[in-house]
Amino acid sequence: METPSAAAFDFEAGEVLLIDKPLTWTSFDVVRKVKNTLRIKKIGHAGTLDPLATGLLILCTGKKTKQIDLIQAQEKEYTGTFRLGQTTPSFDLETPVDAELPYEHLTEEQVRAATAQFTGLIEQTPPLFSAVKVNGERAYEVARRGGEAEIKSKQVTIRAFELTRIELPEVDFRVTCSKGTYIRSLARDFGLALGCGAHLTRLVRTRIGEYSVADALSMAQLEALRPPRPEGAAEQRPRRQRQPERRAGLEYFQATSAPQAPNEAASS
C-alpha cells in the first residue's frame, strides 16, 4: 500500500494500525518499534504472531485499545507451507529435524483428501513450544530447557483448509480459522494423518476479520511516518543500527538460515 501522511493519524484519540510483521521479529518488537518511532503513549497488539511468522499484526493506540479483545476474537486467515516427511519438536523451523519418514508413495489425491478431517470443529493440542501456561510457566520455557509438560487439547474451528500447491515434499495451504488455532499443530496433525510426518516451514497471516495484510504498513513505511523533532529540542545523537539479536529459541533457525538484515526492532 502507499505510505499515508502522518497528518492522517490521531494516535492519542485512537488508531487501528495494520503492520506487516518482519521475519524473526516478536510482536513485542513491533509494538516497541512503533511506540518509539511515532512517540505513542498508549499502544497494544491484537493477537501475537510467532517470530518465524510474517504478515498482519494489528496494533491499537489510544482509546482504540478498548477494541483489542474484539479484534482478537475475529476469524483469521493464513497461508504457508508444510514440509512432509520430516518432523521437528517445535513443529516448525525453530528446532532441527528429529525424524524422517517416507512420503514418496503419497498421491496428490491422498494428500488433498486428508484435509477433510481438519475442517469444522476439531480437537487440537497446542505445541509444547508455545505460550500456553503450564503450572504458571510458559510451555516454551519448559521446552527450551529440555523439559516435558502435559498440554491439554482444546476445540478450535477451521472453516477452510485448502491446498494451493502440491510439489512433494512441499505443500502450500490457505487456512481460515478461529482464534486460538495453532497452524504448527495443524502441520503436525496433517503429517500424522498422512503417516509421514510434517512441519511448518513458512507462515503468513493474511487477514483478521475484515483487516487485510494488503493494507498493512511495512516497517520502512512506518519509519516514514516518524514525526519531526519539536522546534528547539536538543540535538539527538545519531540512531545506532543494532545488529540482529540471538533470540532465545531462534538460535537454530538463525544459525542455519541466510544472514538477516540488521534488526531495527530496538532502535527508536
TrEMBL record:
Keywords from the named record: Isomerase, tRNA processing
Protein name: tRNA pseudouridine synthase B
Domain tRNA pseudouridylate synthase B C-terminal residues, every copy: 184-224
Lineage, highest ranks first: Bacteria, Pseudomonadati, Bacteroidota, Cytophagia, Cytophagales
Organism: Hymenobacter guriensis
EC number: 5.4.99.25
Positions of region (Disordered): 225-268
Similarity comment: Belongs to the pseudouridine synthase TruB family. Type 1 subfamily.
Annotated Pseudouridine synthase II N-terminal domain residues: 35-183
GO molecular function annotations of the record: tRNA pseudouridine(55) synthase activity
Active site residues according to the UniProt entry: 50
Matches recorded under InterPro entries: PsdUridine_synth_cat_dom_sf, PsdUridine_synth_N, tRNA_psdUridine_synth_TruB, TruB_C
Pfam family, one: TruB_N
Record keyword Nuclease present: no
Record's compositionally biased regions (Polar residues): 254-268
Domain of life: Bacteria
NCBIfam families: TruB (TIGR00431)
Record's function text: Responsible for synthesis of pseudouridine from uracil-55 in the psi GC loop of transfer RNAs.
Enzyme category, top tier: isomerase
Record field: compositional bias (Basic and acidic residues): 226-249
Keyword Nucleotide-binding appears in the UniProt entry: no
Record's catalysed reaction(s): uridine(55) in tRNA = pseudouridine(55) in tRNA
